[in-house]
Amino acid sequence: MTGALADLALQVDPVAVADGVNNVWVLVVCFLIFFMQPGFALLEAGQVRAKNVGNVLMKNMTDWTLGVLVFFVVGASVSVLVGMLTTPGAALDAGAAWGHINDPTAYIGWFFGAVFAMTAATIVSGAVAGRMDYKAYVFVAAAMTAVIYPAMPGVAWGGDGLISGAGYLGEAIGVGYLDFAGATIVHMCGGVAGLVGAKMVGPRTGRFDENGNSQAIPGHSMLLAVLGTLFLAFGWYGFNVGTQATVLAAGDGGVTFQGAALGQVVLNTTLGMGAGGVAAMIVSAAWQGKPDPLWAANGLLAGLVAVTGAVPHVTWWGGVILGGIAGALVLPTYRWVVDSLKIDDVCGVFAVHGSAGAIGTVLIPLFGVTSTGGYQFLGVDQLIMQVVGVLVVGTWTVLATIVAFKAADVLFGLRVSEEEEELGLDESEHGVSVYPEFVAGGSREGPTVADGGIAGGSGDD
Q1: d(Cα 398, Cα 395) in Å, to the nearest integer?
Q2: Is the pTM of this model over 0.85?
Q3: Which domains does the chain have, with CATH numbers?
């Protein structure tokens, strides 16, 4: 090494290098997580009738555009305030809660929180598709990003909060809640909110016959739905692997690459999605006689959700089991929601995000991993905390979502009229047609794809 290079090496601060690389890494994975937005848009658009595609796209864009504004001004601060209020000895400091507003050093961290918040909010639109008033949805989306979702990281993440190790319940039980990247904090919150919303809005016209039996309303494009699934899976690497935000760790010995931690997360993410997809294929073949690509896609997503909270905490075979359980339960859980609860959850968001997130997170202690990749049971206290944490997330989400939807109903009315629903929300709510060329004779008369002209596949049944 020449003298100049040696002098330069001595001047390099390992902490500064590590911080710089880690911050760039966080930005890159946030961009990947943003790519989940077009994934959700395609997934949901494919599972609705053609006359409602534009409305789904509009709601997805609203989740992001309105959501980031609301989360910047209100939501991020609510998370901090909730953490303060639910931690013993913590002082309530509104200045600290809104400290990010004029602090450029906090903006990357805020952005990381924002892309998670937008994911939770977007899940809801898939449950209430095809009949919810757009103005009411805008109100709910604002509530999701201002209060409903932000309270969840407030109670669990950031080193304080109700179910963290330092929180009231964490101190009482003796351990903190484990949910690495948000299987419950993000996905279960969105899935449960969607289920509650779908119940309150009511089913689409024709979804149930006069005897209460469910009637299939197939989505218009399985192609879009499956492509959306694969887009989501791509973005999920940012979601899970990106939560391992420390790529380089600086210490007395210099800078150390955290390859083992990253590898553990990426392996369990990959195996979990694979197991979920395969399990759903098997169950759909047994249930319906043939393997269904849409249910395989839903199983793949459920497997991802199930391991999202578990990826650094469980063995590789634990990741396979968690993903497989979630994938196997997607179809029967969806049928239970529709046939027993009589809730028209169009995109099956509770089966994919709600129940899968809860199951995967509760079972984490049973498949614990050591630092060297071996197996260890994480303890009865940890198992109790996982159950308690899921109950906290579920209870808050149900109650807060009921309030938000009731307020939206009073202010705007939750659903469109029967005439508007029959016409399609694209026309009635936005004055557009996403597929204007799919009209017999080139006119606006005659059967369109929305009337079942080319719709096919398994749809939502």
Answers
A1: 5
A2: yes
A3: 13-203+218-245+259-443 (1.10.3430.10)
